[in-house]
Amino acid sequence: MYQKQITDREAGQRFDKYLHKLLPEAGSSFLYKMLRKKNIILNGRKADGSEKIAAGDQVAIFFSEETLRKFMGRDSGGSGDRCEEFYQAYQKYSSVPVIYENEHILLANKPAGLLSQKAKPEDLSLNEWLIGYLLRKDCIKEEDIAAFKPSVCNRLDRNTSGIVLCAKSLKGARLLGALLQNRSLHKYYQLYVKGRVTREQLIEGYLRKDEKHNKVSVTPLAQSAGEPEEAYIQTRYKPLKVYADMTLLEAELLTGKPHQIRAHLAGVGHPLLGDYKYGNRAWNDRYQKEYHIKSQLLHAYKVTFPTLGAPFEDISGQTFYAQPPEIFETIARHQEAYRIASGRK
Questions:
Q1: Closest among 208, 260, 200 to 236, alpha carbons compared
Q2: Whether the Cβ atoms of residue 280 and residue 194 lie closer than 8 Å to each other
Q3: Nearest partner of 152 among 174, 132, 168, 139, judged by Cα
Q4: Are 219 and 206 a contacting pair, CB within 8 Å?
Q5: Per residue in 114-172, pLDDT tens?
Q6: Using one digit for the tens of pLDDT, what is the confidence trace for 209-248?
Q7: How many other CB atoms sit within 10 Å of the CB of residue 85?
């Protein structure tokens, strides 16, 4: 017999969907048969699978240990074996800063060089780090992962640093998914670009992705009819500090498409510092030698949540910040010293 109490992380989903996650190797017809025969019960009573489970609900499954392991997919190894990559990821990336967390969400400051999610089966990404972190902090148990797997909800490029939104519970995943879809959560980036940008601007265009080469191109709004394979994009940016031949910008993603900021800014003559895919090679080479820059200097430094109701009152209307990498401050100090020495304004 297997007994499990539903946690707040798992609550809010249909009972049959929960069972499919808990017993991934069992077919639908088998699960519904077990419900009808009361080999699977909810809160001590017969269930049909359509019930919406709540925190504190009790699930009982009357299977033999061998059958249970088979349908949980544990025949090839215990839960500890299956969770090993999570512990490895947490150990490898134990210095990832947690900006904020509550029962449902977590905000992490991803360093450049770390994938948000796996690109290959053998990768260790922020997603594995998240689960390893929650396991090590006893926020979840190994058996909980079968019914709900915490995950990152927005992706940053491998070499982009900054705030990544993570769901610890089903409620958290649904909230973050909705906020990202309706664009009511505001995301801001800091970046160094080529040239002197002296005013705030909203730019629009159409983005087309080349899947084969993992590269995008942007066509100005006036030059495109908006073909089906093109996505409409909006980027707002404003200067934070103007130097001799570069500007520290704040950019807000009004639409969220892959490589949007990098390609859009390059398209208007202000490529990112350190970005060899879309940027200016000679300019990048100059500063790469001076600062040993390894990737584009793009950092997701701020998110602002809209007004929210229960159970998210703690983040309602709140703004959270992620400290930029040290290279941002190093460049600012050097550029400011050069500005003073040269007498520039």
A1: 200
A2: yes
A3: 168
A4: yes
A5: 999 999 989 999 999 999 999 999 998 888 888 889 999 999 999 999 999 999 999 99
A6: 988 888 999 988 878 777 888 999 999 999 999 999 999 9
A7: 18
Task: State the pairing for strand pair 298-304/161-167.
Answer: parallel
- The Cα–Cα gap between 105 and 111 comes to 19
Cα–Cα distance measured from residue 334 to residue 286, given in angstroms and rounded to the nearest whole number: 14
227-266: burial string, b at 16+ Cβ within 10 Å, e else: eeebbebbbebebeebbeebbbbbbbbbeebebbbbbbbb
- 130's enclosing H/E stretch is helix 126-136
Instruction: Supply the DSSP symbol for 312.
Output: -
228: which residues sit within 8 A by CB, 6+ positions away?
A: none
Categorize the per-residue pLDDT at 264 as very low, low, confident or very high, splitting at 50, 70 and 90: very high
At residue 335, the 3 state secondary structure works out as: helix
Flag whether the pTM goes above 0.90.
no
Q: Is the pLDDT of residue 345 over 90?
A: no
pLDDT above 60 for 107: yes
Question: Following DSSP, what letter does each residue of 285-304 receive, concatenated?
Answer: HHHHHHH---S--EEEEEEE
Contact 199, 161 (CB under 8 A): no
Q: Is 160 within 8 Å of 300 (Cβ atoms)?
A: yes
Rounded Cα distance, 16 and 27, in Å: 11
**Phi and psi at residue 163, to the nearest 5°:** -70, 125
Question: What is the distance between the terminal CA atoms of the chain, rounded to a whole angstrom?
Answer: 75
Residue with tokens 């989903």: 13
More confident residue, 79 or 261: 261
Q: E strands, 66-133, where?
A: 98-101, 105-110
Q: Which of 47-51, 71-75, 139-143, 258-262 has the lowest mean pLDDT?
A: 71-75
**Average pLDDT of span 26-41:** 94
Q: Compute the half-sphere exposure of residue 206: CA atoms within 13 Å on the CB side of its CA.
A: 12
